[in-house]
Input
Amino acid sequence: MTQPQEPSAEVVMTQREEEREQRLFSFKTSQLIWLAFGLVEALIAMRIVLKLIGANSASLFATLIYDVSYIFLFPFEGLVGTPAAGGAVLELSSIIALMVYALLAWGIERIVRVLFYSPRW
Output
């Protein structure tokens, strides 16, 4: 005589596998968000440091950093004054941009987690 199989065990496994995939997607998406915004933050931070030490703007590296970071900084251009002393420049708008992008990254990551994360029960 054969023993009856438990049909509910297969359904539970499928449901748990789906939840695992959803958690993995949420985790990977969060990592990508932090990576992307981390690169933007690092680029802006390098720009701030180069401006503070009065780096030669004719240098290829400085020009590259200034040009690429400008894409992310133009919305903040002229927001506040830019104090300068000698060759050193303190771009306060860049510091504000760092804070705004950090908050934006946090907000987007939280939205992804709320929409796609399903905790284990």
In short: The mean pLDDT is 86. Residues 38 and 102 are 8 Å apart (CA to CA). The chain has one domain: 21-115.
